[in-house]
Predict the structure.
Amino acid sequence: MQMNEEKITSVVKDFFHKIHADDLMSKFFKNHDQERIQHHPQTFLEHGLGEGKYSNEQIANAHKDIPINDEHFEAMVGNFITTLDENGFSAEDKQKIHGILQGYKGDILGK
C-alpha cells in the first residue's frame, strides 16, 4: 500500500480532527502541548501501515501513565478505520491495518 505525502497528510489531518471531536478521546489530548502531540496521528498511521518506528516497549512506556481502557483503544482504532474508509482505502487494507493496530493493544493498555 503506497501513499504519497499528500495522502498521508490528509489522513493524519482527518484522523486528528476525529479524535479531537470525539468526547471519549479528546480528553487525552486537551491539556497537552499540541505541538508535542501533533506527531501522534502520524505515528498511529505509520504503525497501522506496519512501518512503526517505536518498539513495543517504547509504546508501552509512552502510554503507561494514561488511563486508557478497552473502550478508549477501540474508539481510537474505530476513528482511524473510519478515516481510512473516508479516504478511499480498500476493505483489505483496512482489515490489515486493523489487525496490526490490535497487535499493540496489550502494550498500550499495559496488559
